[in-house]
Design a protein that fits this description.
Elements (H helix, E strand, L loop, with lengths): L1 E4 L3 E6 L4 E6 L4 H12 L13 H6 L4 E10 L2 E9 L3 E8 L6 E8 L7 E5 L23 E2 L22
Parallel strand pairs: 3-9
Antiparallel strand pairs: 1-2, 2-3, 4-5, 5-6, 6-7, 7-8
């Protein structure tokens, strides 16, 4: 999936369907994430790293945390941390040094059969860079079909009605 947001319009492209949805979404990234999760049923694993209060959100509900050691992600030395909460296990690799940037995150769902994992890799994290005016303008790929925003749930990796591993 690809998400493009310019502060006014959100565009979500599902590569597996070659379809995209667009809707008005004025506001912050925090507001967009909340709207997508609550109003459109889109999971957005890893989006918590983009929230303005990322630390508070990530540590809420943590039942266990461990420092695993150091590892290398994309040629950068990182601290490897592991966390458990009620419904997910997640790991975070944070670059060592003056710029402690998260370089990799692996989220494992414990409430869905077969415990699917989502991996997020951060290749670059730049601040203070002047971007082109159209940097956040979505251009649909050739042949992509526009779908209604109500159908965003169909763009998720897990189909509706997928069996859950949660116990009653």
């Amino acid at each position: 999936m690809e998400l493009v947001f310019d502060g006014k319009l959100a565009s979500i492209y599902g590569k597996n369907l070659n379809g995209y949805a667009q809707f008005d979404a004025p506001g912050s990234v925090d507001q967009l994430i909340a709207a997508l999760r609550a109003g459109h049923g889109v999971a957005l694993p890893g989006a918590d790293l983009l929230q303005s209060n990322a630390y508070d959100i990530l540590v809420a509900g943590v039942q266990e945390a461990k420092h695993i050691g150091r590892g290398v992600i994309d040629g950068r030395e990182c601290e490897h941390l592991a966390f458990r909460n009620a419904d997910t296990d997640w790991q975070l690799w944070v670059e060592v040094g003056k710029r402690p940037i998260p370089r990799k995150m692996v989220i494992t769902s414990k409430t869905v059969n077969s415990a699917p994992q989502y991996t997020l890799r951060v290749k670059s994290w730049e601040t203070g860079v002047k971007l082109a005016a159209d940097a956040f303008t979505f251009v649909p790929p050739a042949g992509a079909v526009q779908i209604k925003p109500d159908a965003l749930i169909e763009l998720d990796e897990l189909p509706q009605g997928a069996p859950s591993g949660a116990q009653p």
